[in-house]
């Protein structure tokens, strides 16, 4: 698939941004773990019978991943501490969805710009990047849609005969 230029650019984008994406994913997992621990300490230890999702650390970590998918029922949390619940989940959604989605997209966009710049600087090899236009041109020649180029131009001067 390297002979299509755009696909090669996307492959280079993923390759160059891979280490940044792994680092960002690690930071995201640390953030989710921190929110799960913080929620366990505030919501789980205060009233574990009211909020069973934060009764222990494993449940709170699972609840944070369920909150990312939108499957967590937050009505139970308002009975324990309504102000903290609003602040907790608002900062969690803001941090995860807005900041990290923009961070992941910025990594991909920068990697795409770098890959396009690198592609412009690299010498184009006809075997890798120009196969489709070459095959298309040869097909049109075979079908008779275009005429072949003359490799030796014929020059005719007035009054001179051409050797045959």
TrEMBL record:
Transmembrane segments: 20-43, 83-109
Topological relation to the membrane, as annotated: Multi-pass membrane protein
Domain Polycystin cation channel PKD1/PKD2: from-to ranges: 2-113
InterPro entries with a match to the protein in the record: PKD1_2_channel (IPR013122)
GO BP, one annotated term: calcium ion transport
GO cellular component: plasma membrane
Top-level lineage group: Eukaryota
Secretion signal, residue range per the UniProt entry: none
UniProt-recorded Gene Ontology molecular function terms: monoatomic cation channel activity
Subcellular location: Membrane
Record keywords: Membrane, Repeat, Transmembrane, Transmembrane helix
Name of protein: Polycystin cation channel PKD1/PKD2 domain-containing protein
């Amino acid at each position: 698939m390297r002979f299509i230029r755009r696909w090669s650019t996307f492959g280079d984008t993923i390759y160059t941004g891979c280490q940044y994406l792994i680092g960002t994913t690690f930071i995201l997992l640390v953030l989710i773990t921190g929110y799960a621990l913080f929620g366990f300490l505030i919501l789980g230890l205060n009233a574990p019978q009211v909020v069973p999702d934060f009764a222990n650390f494993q449940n709170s970590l699972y609840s944070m991943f369920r909150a990312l998918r939108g499957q967590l029922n937050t009505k139970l949390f308002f009975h324990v501490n309504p102000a903290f619940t609003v602040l907790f989940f608002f900062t969690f959604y803001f941090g995860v969805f807005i900041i990290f989605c923009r961070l992941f997209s910025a990594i991909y966009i920068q990697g795409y710009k770098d890959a396009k710049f690198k592609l412009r600087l690299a010498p184009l090899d006809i075997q890798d990047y120009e196969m489709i236009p070459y095959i298309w041109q040869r097909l049109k020649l075979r079908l008779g849609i275009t005429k072949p180029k003359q490799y030796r131009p014929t020059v005719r001067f007035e009054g001179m005969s051409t050797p045959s």
